[in-house]
Amino acid sequence: MSDFEAILKAYAAAGGNPEFLKSPKVGSLVISGNQVLGLNAIPGLDVQADPVPDGVRVAVRVAPAARIETPVHLCFGVIPEEGVQRILVDYEVGAGASIEFLAHCTFPNALRVQHVMQGTVHVGPAATMRYSEVHYHGETGGIEVLPRLQIRVDEGGRYFSSFSQTKGRAGRIDLDYTVDVDREALAELTAKALGYADDQITVRETIRLNGEGARGLARSRIAVRDRARSEVLATTEGNAPFARGHVDCVEIVRGQAVANAVPVVRVTDDRAQVTHEAAIGTVGKKELETLMSRGLAEDEAVDIIVRGMLG
Amino acid sequence: MRQQTRPGPDQALLQVTDLHVTRDGRPILRGVNLTVMEGSIHAVLGLNGSGKSTLAYALIGSAGYALQRGEIRLAGEEITPLSITERGRLGLTLAWQEPARFEGLTVERYVSLGMREPDLQHVRQALIAVALDPDDYLHRYVDESLSGGERKRVELAAVYAMRPRLAILDEPDSGIDILTLEDISKLIRRMQREGTTVLLISHRDEVVAIADAASLMCEGQIQTTGDPRHVCDRYARCCRPCDRAQKVETELDYERL
What we know:
The structure holds two protein chains of two kinds. By secondary structure, chain A is mainly β. Chain A has one domain (about 5-285). Chain A is built from four helices and 19 strands. In chain A, strands 2-1-5-7-9-11-13-15-17-19 form a ten-stranded mixed beta sheet. The radius of gyration of chain A is 20 Å and the shape is globular. Helix content of chain B is about 35%, strand content about 25%. In chain B, α4 (about 120-130) packs across α6 (about 150-160). At the A-B interface, α3 and α4 of A face α2 and β6 of B.
């Protein structure tokens, strides 16, 4: 099996549709380890991918006013049991542009694999960027995933980000995103993760609402069981008039797992408003008993509730 | 969800004998005796706080509502030691007064959960039966985006779709905006026609009018059972002026457990 076939197989296991990665009409990028196995730029989208010793440096440019209707598909993976993959990214979305990225990150055989996603995102004035990242780490737990992004959303821009790892083990996830949101701009960050055995999940999200009328939402949904650990450190700052922010965290804990949530709300302008809600605990009694009274076993009912929450 | 063997007509489906439930050291049910006939609509009427919902939770086997004393039989089989799941599989279920919300669970999936052989057509029929347009609701989530009335109707649809042997409907008319009392009556009668015995819990005597039999509950005991008109009459004369009932039975009490 070629490297490309192997990564496509892993991509499919992570929930991706390999046909998109083969279509000349769809923007795409396929990286396995530090090899660029596929790259397809389309009008309005320029992608540069240059290998470095332990990964790839990626620069994505979306032309101003470009409206790219079809999602751009990205695939990052490491097929061997061991290795390091460092993706150094730089996204630049021009003024008034609109684009959506669907990324699948797959490490199906990981025994000692580290995946680092590090870089910057700049969403220009009145531009929109949607970035959805789905992870599949297999069942071994030997993976360390370290996404670190600095994001800037200019006036009137909109940035939607979703990180999801809901199949297989998490291994160790340590996500760290910081977003600066300008006037009348919007940032929504969603993180969903499932951990079991001795998985460790940390979500650090900071949203700084710096411009007048800026809006932000940090939403996390995490379920842990066995001896897994999860921690959500969500900070939202209201630093400008009429900025509106909200932190929404739910963690479900079972077995000997432990979950922490530290929502921090900081307001430096008395016309801003930031709210938070955090719920940590086991599955709600009424939810559970409602499903059990329909004849579902307790484990089935818990599974349905957790899977629903994780989407 | 129906057991193969069924009692014949005019036989008891549910028999509750000397049921005692205590919460926080306080007796809530104090020797409930109740018989519900197979295929009937049986109403339990009582003021808020009289123990009606506690009786419902005890019947389905909810945690925290264990019996201090007493026995529950379904079709002659003692179900007191059975779990809530096992009782559900025997066809005993509850439509909650204030149903739970489920993030990420669609109406289609939720309504089909209790069906032995889920099929979309049956789910659609159940939604139509509670005056919800399937095309508008199948793919919506059973979460906070539904209004209280919509959620309540989805709950009734889910119980109807399950085709349970015994459906306990706890205040089915409360909080429903569009679905009228007449709609609810139609649904309950439809359930009855299709083989479900209904235990209808309410504090409103007009709801009880559709029942074949009714029991009056007060202070954790069944005071009388008989013709719904007579029970309603006694309820109007004796219970409404009565303020002895303590507020011990709320959704908050349940949640606290």
